[in-house]
Amino acid sequence: MTIAPQRVVTLHYVLSDRDGSVLDDSHARRQPLEYLHGHGNIMAGLERALAGQEAGARLSVTLMPAEAYGLRDEALVREVGRHAFPMKEIAPGMRFQTPGDDGPEIVTVLEVRDDAVVIDTNHPLAGQVLRYRLEVLAVRDATRAELAKGHPLPPGTDPGEVEDKKLP
C-alpha cells in the first residue's frame, strides 16, 4: 500500500541540522511517528517526499527553512515585563509554551533583567536547514474515526467516543 491522503503512516526518523548534529531520533526514543497523510500533521515538504512511498522505503529529505519552521524573524524577539513570568527563577535558554494567535507557541528566554525579560517567539528551529532520514514502517487506511479527528487514534479507541465533525 502506498502513502496517499487518508492513510495512516508509521515511520522512524532521524532529524539533523545542516552540520549533521542529531536534533531528534525516534529510534533512540523507541517511539515511531504515526501521522495521517494529507491532514497537515507533518510539514508539507515531508508529506510531498513521502507520497507514493511504501512500507520498507528509506529516504533522505532536506528541507530549507521556508519549507520547515520558517525564516527567523527578528521582530519576534522582544522585551516583556518580568511580571509575565510567575516563577521566581528564570534563566536564559529556558523555554515555555504559551497560547498564541495561531495556537500554542514556544517562547525562549534570551535575557533576564530586573524588571524585564527578553524573549524569542521564533520556533527554535526557525531559519535552519533540516535533514531527515526516514524509514517507512507501515501504511494503512485510516479509520472513519481517525478521519473525523484528523489524526491517528491510539489503539483500542472506541469509535463511538469520537465526535464526527469533519465528515458529512
From TrEMBL:
Named from the GO MF annotations, one term is: isomerase activity
**Domain PPIase FKBP-type intervals:** 6-90
InterPro entries, per database record: PPIase_dom_sf, PPIase_FKBP_dom
Q: Which Gene3D superfamilies match?
A: 3.10.50.40
Which PROSITE patterns does the record cross-reference, listed alphabetically?
Answer: FKBP_PPIASE (PS50059)
Q: What class of enzyme is it?
A: isomerase
Q: What is its main location?
A: cytoplasm
Q: What EC designation does it have?
A: 5.2.1.8
Q: Which Pfam families match?
A: FKBP_C
Cell compartments where the protein resides: Cytoplasm
Q: Which reaction does it catalyse?
A: [protein]-peptidylproline (omega=180) = [protein]-peptidylproline (omega=0)
- The segment annotated Disordered runs over 148-168
Alphabetically ordered keywords of this record: Chaperone, Cytoplasm, Isomerase, Rotamase
Which segment of the chain is annotated as a signal peptide? none
Concerning PANTHER family, the annotation shows: FKBP-TYPE PEPTIDYL-PROLYL CIS-TRANS ISOMERASE SLYD
Described function: Also involved in hydrogenase metallocenter assembly, probably by participating in the nickel insertion step. This function in hydrogenase biosynthesis requires chaperone activity and the presence of the metal-binding domain, but not PPIase activity.
**What family is this protein classified in?**
Belongs to the FKBP-type PPIase family.
Q: What is this protein called?
A: Peptidyl-prolyl cis-trans isomerase
What species is given as this protein's source?
Halomonas gemina
